[in-house]
Specification:
The complex is a heterodimer of chains A (465) and B (117).
Chain A (H helix, E strand, L loop, with lengths): L4 H6 L1 H9 L15 H7 L4 H10 L7 E3 L1 H8 L9 E5 L10 H14 L4 E5 L3 H13 L2 E9 L7 H12 L3 E6 L4 H12 L2 E2 L5 H22 L5 E5 L4 H12 L6 E7 L22 H9 L19 E5 L1 H15 L9 H9 L8 E4 L11 H10 L3 E5 L9 E5 L8 E3 L1 H9 L9 H10 L4 H13 L1
Parallel strand pairs in A: 2-10, 3-4, 3-6, 4-5, 7-8, 7-10, 8-9, 11-12
Antiparallel strand pairs in A: 1-2, 9-13
Helix pairs in contact in A: 4-10, 6-7, 6-10, 7-8, 10-11, 13-14, 17-18
Chain B lengths: L1 H10 E4 L2 E4 L4 E9 L10 H4 L3 E9 L3 E2 L3 E5 L5 E9 L12 H13 L5
Antiparallel strand pairs in B: 1-2, 2-5, 3-4, 3-7, 4-6, 6-7
The chains are: A alpha/beta (465), B alpha+beta (117).
Chain lengths: 465, 117
């Protein structure tokens, strides 16, 4: 079989179908729409099934910890009567050290159920370690394909650490230089091995995170007699937020606000060889968070189950220096050495809590393990070696790729809010100039969590541009 | 470190002045997946200018020299090929060097929380 880029990409649909054993065409509807809930329910797993699979794999039911000293710290800078209680779901306690084990448990369960001999995942992050760990438990072979080094052969140390973890769990790790054609190499491997595509974006993978939202809602409700006012999720591919929000809804926490938070890497191009090693965060940043929110189907499956704009109430950004700052605070004040990437939403929560009343509760829904390469000292020293200026100052003046600015006080750890309407507009740009059906408007209003009228208004605006 | 050097030295046979690496030795290979002209159109210029490369570890199929184009058997028992770039590779990532600014940040956080709780 011919293996040129074009030949392989031409066989993409067929390769994908074989590697997922799921025919996505059955979810398609007339026009641009597809039936999202039908797709999510088609797998046949209930929330109880997911819980059972995760418990069998020692995953989930992680501690929900009240960060009393960090809450006190935030209250030093808020008005009297303000400063919400900050809670943290310690997902680092999961097998493989992150919430990604919840997703991997479902991918591996599905692969095993369908009789695949092995799995492949395209990921440079915690998901790779999670898939490798769960594949090890299931006796499945595992290949992880990661984007790891630039054209000068310099590896991003956090991704090297993930390669180490994957190898520790017995996986084969293929490391690539910078570029989105990693997807081509991924398809070549799927075709060659006949393995399962353990995509981060399959319906069962997203169902795996519903337990996280459900656990947060039920635990807060049983201990404090109410659901949390807000849950904040670090946002990259959108699965974390989508699954958590769906879990909150399943627990009937309808009024809990779902907030997205990403590290602001504005100005750095995600497919740029030069920019690759100028980032101190390999995930949880705007380079994934914004494009995956505004065009979820850019992922490695025909229809992504991660559709964050369906659930998002607010989207805030924090700079790299502030996430490092709060990572230090978490270790120094709470005795928890975690992250740093997983602490993106904790940095935002520290500021947001100051605007909430003191009897309110904000839950940061994840932590991740730390270690060589990942640790903030490893990342900051790597940045210094790449010529990036590191200093204490005004974090809002940070220029990604040029400097990293730590706040001079907790008081100056600030967020930037992105307009959800702008995100909705970017999403709708994909349909500019198209004749949309009435059913399409209904679909888009669900996709964007707004009225059909708002969709029509934005479309009119776009078509006039 | 000394042990590693000695071990590596033993795994390398000196045959006819060339450093031969024994078959079945764990090695790392590298190959070009896409030449720069084969890369997709919608890339930034700096990425388009360079090839897409791949690195992989496995056991060497036949004895070879560093720099040879070789076949390896990978962890999942696949055969793959590329230029032999490293023998008995190991991870070198660490916690980085001393960073002054992190000590400043520590001081700020501890000072601002001196009297709390």
């Amino acid at each position: 079989m011919k293996k040129s880029y074009k030949d392989v990409m031409d066989r993409k649909s067929e390769i994908m179908k074989n590697a997922l054993n799921l025919d996505y065409t059955k979810f398609e509807k007339e026009g641009i729409a597809f039936d999202y809930e039908y797709m999510m329910n088609y797998s046949g797993y209930t929330l109880d099934d997911v819980k059972k699979i995760q418990i069998e794999n020692n995953i989930g039911n992680t501690p929900l910890i009240e960060l009393k000293r960090i809450t006190e710290y935030a209250r030093k800078f808020s008005k009297k009567g303000y400063g919400a209680r900050i809670f943290l779901k310690d997902e680092a306690a999961n097998l493989s050290g992150s919430f990604k084990a919840r997703r991997a448990a479902m991918s591996i369960h599905q692969a095993k159920k369908l009789g695949y001999k092995g799995v492949i995942a395209a990921t440079s992050g915690n998901y790779g370690a999670a898939v490798a760990a769960l594949a090890a438990r299931a006796g499945l072979k595992c290949i992880i394909v990661q984007e790891c080094f630039d054209s000068k052969e310099i590896e991003q140390p956090e991704i090297t650490e993930k390669a180490r973890a994957c190898e520790a769990y017995g996986a084969e790790v293929m490391q690539l230089s910078v570029g989105p054609e990693l997807f081509y190499q991924f398809l070549v491997l799927l075709e060659e091995t006949g393995f399962f595509n353990a995509s981060l974006y399959s319906p069962y993978c997203i169902m795996g995170i519903e337990t996280l939202g459900y656990e947060i809602a039920s635990e807060v409700k049983s201990k404090y007699g109410k659901f949390p006012e807000a849950v904040i999720c670090t946002n990259a591919g959108g699965g974390n937020l989508t699954g958590t929000a769906r879990g909150l809804i399943k627990a009937e926490a309808f009024d809990t606000k779902v907030i997205a938070s990403s590290v602001d890497l504005t100005g750095l191009h995600m497919a740029s060889d030069n920019d690759f090693n100028k980032k101190s965060f390999t995930t949880g940043h705007t380079g994934f968070g914004i494009p995956f929110s505004t065009f979820p189907d850019r992922s490695d499956v025909p229809r992504s189950a991660a559709r964050p704009l369906r659930y998002m109430d607010k989207y805030v950004l924090v700079n790299q220096g502030s996430v490092f700052f709060i990572t230090e605070a978490l270790a120094l004040l709470e005795g928890m050495e975690r992250g740093p990437a997983g602490n993106t939403s904790l940095a935002a929560a520290f500021h947001l809590a100051q605007e909430m009343k003191e009897d309110e509760i904000i839950v940061v829904q994840e932590t991740e393990y730390t270690g060589a390469g990942k640790h903030l000292n490893a990342q900051i020293s790597f940045a210094i070696d790449r010529g990036i200026e590191v200093k204490v100052g005004n974090p809002l003046e940070e220029i990604p790729g040029k400097n990293i600015i730590f706040p001079t006080s907790g008081q100056y750890l600030k967020i930037k809010e992105i307009s959800l309407n702008d995100l909705k507009k970017s999403y709708l740009k994909h349909y500019k100039g198209m004749d949309l059906l009435n059913t399409d408007y209904k679909y888009l209003s669900e996709e964007l969590k707004c009225s059909e009228q708002l969709v029509k208004n934005i479309m009119e605006e776009l078509n006039e541009e | 470190m000394l042990y590693k050097i000695i071990k590596k030295w033993y795994s390398i046979n000196i045959i006819g002045g060339k450093k031969m690496i024994k078959e079945n030795t764990v090695v790392q290979i590298e190959r070009v997946v896409l030449k720069s002209v084969e890369r997709t159109g919608n890339l930034p210029d700096d990425t388009k200018r360079v090839p897409l490369k791949m690195k992989l570890k496995g056991r060497l199929v036949t004895k070879s020299n560093l720099g040879d184009y070789v076949k390896i058997v990978t962890q999942t028992n696949r055969i793959d090929e590329g230029y032999l770039i490293d023998v008995e590779p190991y991870f070198k990532h660490d916690y980085g060097h001393y960073v002054e600014v992190l000590d400043e940040v520590k001081d700020i956080i501890l000072r601002e929380n001196e009297n709390s709780l």
